[in-house]
Hints:
With 102 residues, the chain is α+β, with helices and mostly antiparallel strands. The protein contains three helices and four strands.
Amino acid sequence: MVVVLVRCHVKPGCEEAFAAASVENAKASNREAGVLRFDFYREEDPTRFVLLEAYRDEEGPRAHKASAHYARWRDTVEPLLAEERTRERFEGVYVPERHLGC
C-alpha cells in the first residue's frame, strides 16, 4: 500500500473553484482500479486543502498521474494555487483489511 498526502494552498477567492475541480478529480480517482481511497479535505484555514490518496501498490500513483482526469485537474488548479503543492509519501505498515477493500 502506498499513501500520498498532498497539501494545497490556494489564492484567496479561489477556494470554491479549487474545491469543485478537486471533488470531480476525487470522484473519478475513486473509480480507478489501483485506488483504495481518494479523499479531499479542507483545513481550518479555508485556503488550505489536503488530498489523501491510498493506492494498492506502486503502480497506482503512476496510473493516476497518467489519467485524463488528473491532467484536467492539474491544469485547472495550477493557476489557483498560492504556492507549489507539497507531497508526502508513506508506505503502509499496518492497515486493517477493511481499508484495503478485502
